[in-house]
Amino acid sequence: MGVRQAQKQQSRRALLDAGLHLLEHQNLSGLGVREVTRAAGMSPAGFYRHFRDLAELGVVLVEESLASLHGLIRGALAEQGEAAELIDRTVELIAGHVREHRAYVRFLARERHGGVQPVRAAIAAELARFADEVAEALGAQSESAGWSAADVRMLAELYVDHMVATAVAFLDADGPATEERIAGTARTQLRLISVGRRHWRDV
Amino acid sequence: MGVRQAQKQQSRRALLDAGLHLLEHQNLSGLGVREVTRAAGMSPAGFYRHFRDLAELGVVLVEESLASLHGLIRGALAEQGEAAELIDRTVELIAGHVREHRAYVRFLARERHGGVQPVRAAIAAELARFADEVAEALGAQSESAGWSAADVRMLAELYVDHMVATAVAFLDADGPATEERIAGTARTQLRLISVGRRHWRDV
DNA sequence: TCATTCAGTAAACAACTGTTTGCTGACTCG
DNA sequence: CGAGTCAGCAAACAGTTGTTTACTGAATGA
Q: With bands split at pLDDT 50, 70 and 90, how would you rate the model's confidence at B203?
């Protein structure tokens, strides 16, 4: 890639970073083009060399956010071991992810039901793909013998929803103490679901 | 109440209604004072006779939203009967509530993690109070014998989170078919949790 | 009845906003 | 080298914004 392209990419990155930073305390629908370019050290007109809209910038941020989340899910599904310790590790994985990608997670939580339709649609589509992935992994496990595809799918959705809810809860933790309380709650809830799963066919 | 006060209340209502209506397709942080007064048929300056801020208006909307949700929870907890049919009725209750209070539910979903801190805090506080209420009701049930207070509390949080997630899912339903699919998923998930609850102490 | 209160107004304020325009100057490539 | 590309800029556009000001006129209550 030439110097020209590299410089352009750098500016684009600056815009995305400035946007992500501003969105930590603000909604996408309340963000302004001038605000972003100012924070990125660029003139307002420059923005349009990279994005048509702020919505377009938002969609790119969604893709980046969910790419990182994707890694998290892959990691959690790849784990092996006893159910209890698997749960512990999953929750710790989520906590770590939130610590490292705080801005992305906050952005996702804020815009998942936010006022910008294309962004909302992008998030919903990606989360649905995650549920597919989790469903596939669950279906391959021995505990799912005798489960219908629909039931596996709803279990996957329950897990994804719970993961998102837990991540969002971690966001608002104001110290290690509350963080541990949230982790404890999440673990117990996962354990409850796991018990339900084990006795699913005894009804 | 005198004619004077009644007229003032009416204007206030008009502002709240206009705000709620505009917030169906928009974020609170993207809303403008002028926009609201225009929709309410009032001059911009009139707004300040009723609210200091748009955030203040938002907090009032939160209180109204959660007052209606409160009725829903009371209703669900008061239900009696077999677990399976109880679940069916609860999910139907949620679906009905979303149909009747669509704008309020959308507003809650949007601002729960939105960019306006006081509104976010108000929602979080009210949801925590709901969890308290649910926890109390659960603790009084015979199925909770031998459960620690902390475990009952986490179960209550799981139920509240799930209720909110289900309500939000209903919002995006684009027809009776998807609505029924969402209801089905919610029912199965609740059934799974209920199975887990029944076998909680067998671990 | 008549002074007082006060919800709502119109007008003005300075400070923004998104977007387009023509331009410049550094990179690209034949 | 020299023509062409194109990222970023300054300036201008016509609107919009939140908030304050002094005001009006209907409801109030002695």
A: low
Which residue is nearest to the C1' sugar atom of D28, using CA?
B4
CA of A4 to C1' of D2 (A): 19
The percent of residues above 70 in pLDDT, for chain B, comes to 100
Q: Are residues A93 and A43 in the same domain?
A: no
| CATH number, position B67 | 1.10.357.10
Among residues A95, A62, A200, A93, the alpha carbon closest in space to that of A138 is found at A200
B75 and B112: one domain?
yes
Q: CA-to-CA distance for A105 and B199, rounded, in angstroms?
A: 34
* Token couple for A177: 């103490």
CA–CA distance, B193 with B113 (Å, rounded to integer): 26
Q: Which structural domain, as residue segments, surrounds residue B5?
A: 1-51
Q: How confident is the model at residue B163 (pLDDT cuts 50, 70, 90)?
A: very high
Residues B80 and B180 both lie in one domain: yes
- Please state whether strand C lies within 7 Å of residue A48 at its CB atom: yes
pLDDT of residue A79: 84
Judgement on whether residues A89 and A133 belong to the same structural domain of the protein: yes
